[in-house]
Amino acid sequence: MIPTSFQPPVRTLMGPGPADVHPRVLSALARPTIGHLDPRFVAMMEEIKDLLRTAFRTENALTMPVSAPGSAGMETCFVNLVEPGDTVIVCVNGVFGGRMCENVTRAGGKLVRVDSPWGRAVDPNRLEDALKQHPEARIVAFVQAETSTGASSDTGQLVGLAHRYDCLTIVDAVTALGGSPLEVDGWGVDAVYAGSQKCLSCTPGLAPISLNERAVAKIKARETPVQSWFLDLNLVLGYWTSDGGNRRSYHHTAPVNALYGLHEALLMLTEEGLEKAWARHQQHHIALRDGLEALGLELVVPADERLPQLNAVSIPGGVDDASVRRLLLERYNLEIGAGLGDFAGKVWRIGLMGFSSRAENILLCISALGAILNELGQRVDTTAALAQAQQALSQ
Amino acid sequence: MIPTSFQPPVRTLMGPGPADVHPRVLSALARPTIGHLDPRFVAMMEEIKDLLRTAFRTENALTMPVSAPGSAGMETCFVNLVEPGDTVIVCVNGVFGGRMCENVTRAGGKLVRVDSPWGRAVDPNRLEDALKQHPEARIVAFVQAETSTGASSDTGQLVGLAHRYDCLTIVDAVTALGGSPLEVDGWGVDAVYAGSQKCLSCTPGLAPISLNERAVAKIKARETPVQSWFLDLNLVLGYWTSDGGNRRSYHHTAPVNALYGLHEALLMLTEEGLEKAWARHQQHHIALRDGLEALGLELVVPADERLPQLNAVSIPGGVDDASVRRLLLERYNLEIGAGLGDFAGKVWRIGLMGFSSRAENILLCISALGAILNELGQRVDTTAALAQAQQALSQ
Asked: Which residues does the annotation say bind substrate (chains A, B) (predicted)?
C-alpha cells in the first residue's frame, strides 16, 4: 500500500528545539531549487556568511553553515582542531559536554574531563585547576548554553582563562546563537558552532560555524590529514570561498533549499536586531518563570546561571512525566521537552527559542500545564500564574 | 545594509544535480515543522524507510536517510565498514571513485586502487586481477553511475566477483537510484548510498543508505570505535529504529522539513512505479542522444556503457565551454554541467534526472544548444535535431 502525502499537525514547539519556524522561513524553503554553483546561489551564500557574522558578532572570514545538523558542527570543530595526541580539556555540565568528550577521543585527542554539576554553569575554578595540572593542554572546550539543563556558562571568563594558559577554545553555542549574548570577537572565542533550529527559528539541519585566524592557523599547521573528508575545512573552504578568479571548487552539493530558509531566518533576526532579540528572550523568560513559579513549579538552575531560552523545571512529586507531555501534545498540540541523561524523568525542558519566544506561547504553556496539573490533583492557581506572566510581559 | 529575501530565478536544471524538484516536493518542504521525536514524525520516518526499501529493491532493515548530502552517505559507509588496517579495493573510473580512495585512507584502510579509463565502465578483469593479487582484501568499492563521466558499471557482475573473493561491497548509487536499474538484494550489494537531489527529484541534503546483514555484522564486530560520532551507525540506529518499547534514543535533531520533501519525492516515485521511472529515463536518454547527435555532438561514453540520466557530450573544437553554459543560463535559464577533473573544459554533462527527465526539457536543451552553436558559427541543423528527438519521444 502506498502511503499518502504527509500532513503534519500544527504544533507549538516549546521543547529544546526545533523551535517554531516562522511562515516566512517555511515559504522560503519552497522556492524553486537552483544549482549549487549557480551565480545567483553563490551570491546568496555570500549574504548568508555576512548575516552569520552579524549574528555571531565576528569578523571571522571562516564563518559559514555546515551542511548538516548541529552535532556535525560540533564534529567539524573537533576533527579539524584536534590532532592525534593533543590534550583537550572538556568542561562537562550536561549531555552536550559529554558528547564533546566523545568527539575528542574519536579524533585521537587525550581527554581531560572537568565535571561541574548538572544544572549549574561550568565552574571556572575547576577549569583553572585542570589548566594548571595539564600545561600540555592545547584546547579547552565547553558548552555556553547547555540544552540538556538550561545552564548558561560565562564564555568570556572561560575563554580568558583558557587563553592565559595558551589554549584555543571551542564553544558550543547551538542554543545560544540569537537567544542570549554571544560575542565571538569580543570574548575571543576561537571556534564556535551553532544550530539552525533553536533561536534562529529555522528548520533543523544546518550548523553555522565560525573560526578565527588562530584556529585556522592550527588547522593549516596539521601534520595529519583531517579524519573526515566531508567535514575537512580545508576542502569545504574551497567551495565556500572564492579564489581571486571567483572560481569555486566543487566539494559537495549544498542543501540549496535549506539554505534559502537559513537566509530568510537570519534576515529576520537582523531586521529585529540582535540585541532586541536577546532582550525579547530575556523578558519572555521572566514572564514564563513568574508564571511557572506561581503554579508552584521550581526552576532547576540557580537564577544567575539560567538561560532565558531553555527553562528546566523540576517535575512535581507524584506527577508522571510522560503522561503530562502526552496530554499537552494530544490536547493542545503543545510540545515541551523531556529530561535527558541524569535529568530523565525528573525535569521538563521548556524552550522559548526564536519564534517560539512569543507572549501567546507563554500563556498557552502556563494555562495548559495549569489545567492538566489540576486535573491530576495538584491544585494549582492558574489564574494567579497567568496574572504573574501578564504582568512581566507588560513591563 | 540588510539584504532582502532571496528570490531565486526559475531554472531548468539539466546538469549533474540538483535536478528539477517537483512542486509537490517543494510545497511539502513548507509544511509546519514538528518535533523530531513527535509520534507523528516518527511514523513518517517509518514510511520513509519503507519507501526507500522499495526504491533500493531491498528488504534490508538498515535502510534510512543520512541527515547530510551524498558525500556524507559515502563517508558513512566507509567509516563504519573500514577498520584501520583493512585492505580495500577501490575501482576508479571518475571523480567519485577518487573520492572513495580518500575515504579509505582517512579511515585508516590500506588502499588498492584499480583504475579504469574515464568515460568507461569499471573493468571487471582489472578488479579480478586485483582480487587475486590481494587475497587479504576485505572490501570492494565502486561507483555504479559515475556522475563525472556518465558511465554505468555492471554492479551485479562486480559484486558477484567481489563475493567470490570473500569481500564485502560498497556501491555508490548517488545518481543511479530511481533513474536506472538497481537491485540491492537481487545483486547482493552489501552497502549502498545515494543522494536525494538526482533521480529522486528531491532537494539536495539527504543521503539514503542501505546495508545488509553481512555489512551490519562487520560493523558490530569492529574492534575500534567508528571515527565519526555523527556518522556512527551504532548510534544513528538507536534513533532511526525503535526498540521493543517503541522508545527512540536521541542522537541528533533530524532535518524535519527536508524529510517531508524526501517523503513526498519517494511517494511520487512509488506512484509512478520504479520500473516505469527507469523506462522513462531510458526513453528520454534516447531522444536526447538522437537530437544531440543530429546537432553533430558526440557522446563520450560507448553506447552499451551509458547512463541514461547523465549524458557526457564532447565539446566541439573551437567552442568555448564556459561561454556556452553562461549563455544557456542567462538567456534560457537552462543549467547544464561542466566537466570535472580530467574532463574539465572538454565535456558538458547533460542530466535527465527525475523530474528533469521530461520531453519539454529535451526540446529546450536541443533548441537552445542549437541556436547558440549556430550563433557561434557551428552551422548545425536544429530542425533535424528536434525531429529526431520528437521521433524517439513518440515511440
From this structure: 349
